[in-house]
Amino acid sequence: MEVAIIGAGPTGLIMGIGLARRGHRVVAVDRDPGPSADGSWQRRGVMQFHHAHSFRQQIVDLVRSEAPMGWQNWLAAGAEPVEMALPDGMVVPVGARSRRVTFETALRSAAVTQSGLTIRTGHVVGVIVRRGRASGILVDGQEIAADLVLDASGRSSRVTRSLRTSPPIGGPCAIAFVDRQYQLLDGVPTPPLLNPIAWQGDYDGYQVIIFLHERGAFSALIIRPTSDRSLVPLRHNESFEAAARAIPGLAAWTDPSVSRPLTDVLPGGPLLNVYRDQRRADGELALPGLVFVGDAVCTTTPNFGRGIATSYLQAGELLSLIDRHGADGESIGEAFDAWCAVNMRPWVQDHVQMDDALARRWGGEDVVMDKVRLPSDLIMAATAKDPSIGAVIGPYLGMLALPSSLDAVEPHARAVYRTGWRPPFTDGPNRHQLAEIASTAVRAGV
Predict the structure, then answer these.
(1) Same domain, 21 and 136
(2) Do residues 28 and 7 lie in contact, with contact meaning Cβ atoms separated by under 8 Å?
(3) Alpha-carbon distance 92 to 39, whole Å?
(4) Average pLDDT taken over every residue of the chain
(5) Measured distance CA(40)–CA(344) in Å, rounded
(6) Is 95 part of any domain?
(7) Which of 60, 69, 228, 319 lies 20 to 30 Å (CA to CA) from residue 444?
(8) In sequence order, what are the residues at sequence separation of 6 or more whose Cβ sits closer than 8 angstroms to the Cβ of residue 207?
(9) What pLDDT is attached to residue 131?
(10) How far is CA 236 from CA 10, 129, 241, 354, in A?
(11) Per-residue burial over 141-169, b = 16 or more CB atoms within 10 Å of its CB, e = otherwise
């Protein structure tokens, strides 16, 4: 079968390698030419490329099974497989520590040597339609014929936007972030983590998250509500550094005696919680023979590190459906859309509820309990007062069980909040104090 893939990011690469290894002839087209001769890679136009990422076990499993050379490349580049001990003493794999540039470079180097897969640099300007179905793509004026077209171009999907007219679920959320990458100094012990990959502090009006990457590199995020622009100065290095000094949990990682910056502060773009199906407004498939996959289906905010995991769960399922249905693009599209509705949409809805409620609490609202399911983050937080809630938390956090798995313990969490208990804030300045620290640093130029 001939397959054309729009986009050669993480999803396009794993789909291209997996399909080529099955004997299909695949062309993946991306505007970016790939890493430079010196190994650097700016990946212009992909805002999240240099931002924090988390690599869950689902990603590791798919790369190992579908792109074994990519897995070997990733390990050679420094990826660190991570395990975690459970309360019963069992040790389980939970993912890998890595920066996205390390991961994507390793996967791309495997893709360019994969027989049956061609990575082409160019601009996809349209999908070719014949007899009411996708029959290829148009790249810089040249037609590339295909029996199946996959749109793995990301959340924008500009080329195919007009084809998919069913309304999305979700949209822009009420939070924004900045982050900066650092490198732990040689010989310095790794500061405390909440789990093998991350640390999180929940402050009065904002969050701080640390994502540990490979070889002591890490990303430090400060997440704020978009309704309060007083923390916008954090995009300046001197402001971020002043904030880092003032927040004890962040200072433990970013103190000059502990680490050194690898990048300037990286402002995050608009954060979206969006789910889009495969359909037109009339309920029919957008175009038989065209399948949307990855961020083109599902995007969530980065505070739980689910981005690439949702894409790779999709990729694994789509590869299985192609194995089953061959070139029957309509059957593939229908089956994949039904699977995504059950397995992807709930994660977006989970984030929509959590992020909206978090922003409102940052604005001073109390926990809302009348006729509304508690957000998942509040259910988990209640474990501090009722440990019985913790039994279902692990599978949810590991994306081994859908958000609905928390429904069984939601009444227990609700009972906790009805006592008047609220999750305590992590020690540090509140948002208004942090804003003053940030703006003072910018004014002083220190």
Answers:
(1) yes
(2) yes
(3) 34
(4) 94
(5) 33
(6) yes
(7) 228
(8) 200, 201, 221, 222, 223, 303
(9) 93
(10) 30, 48, 9, 28
(11) eeebebbbbbbbbbbebebbeebbeeeee
Asked whether the beta carbons of 420 and 221 are under 8 A apart, the reply is no
Positions of E strands within 154-283:
169-172, 175-184, 198-203, 206-212, 217-225, 259-261, 266-267, 272-275
94 alpha-carbon distance from chain centroid: 16
Q: Where does 98-152 show beta strands of DSSP type E?
A: 117-121, 124-130, 133-139, 142-145, 148-151
Specify the pLDDT at position 91: 87
Q: Are 239 and 262 in a shared domain? A: yes
Domain of residue 179, residue span: 174-270+430-444
Is it the case that residue 263 has pLDDT exceeding 70?
yes
Query: Which three-class secondary structure string do you get for 153-183?
Result: CCCCCHHHHHHCCCCCEEEECCEEEEEEEEE
User: Per residue in 157-215, pLDDT tens?
Assistant: 778 988 999 999 999 988 999 999 999 999 999 998 988 889 999 999 999 999 999 99
CB–CB of 285/277 below 8 Å? no
With tokens 């983050």, the residue in question is: 377
| Domain of residue 240, CATH code | 3.30.9
Q: How far apart are CA 430 and CA 247, in angstroms?
A: 10
- Put simply, whether the predicted model's pTM sits higher than 0.90 gets the answer yes
Residue 122 lies in a domain: yes
Identify whether the C-beta of residue 160 lies closer than 8 Å to the C-beta of residue 137.
Answer: no
Structure tokens at 287: 């175009």
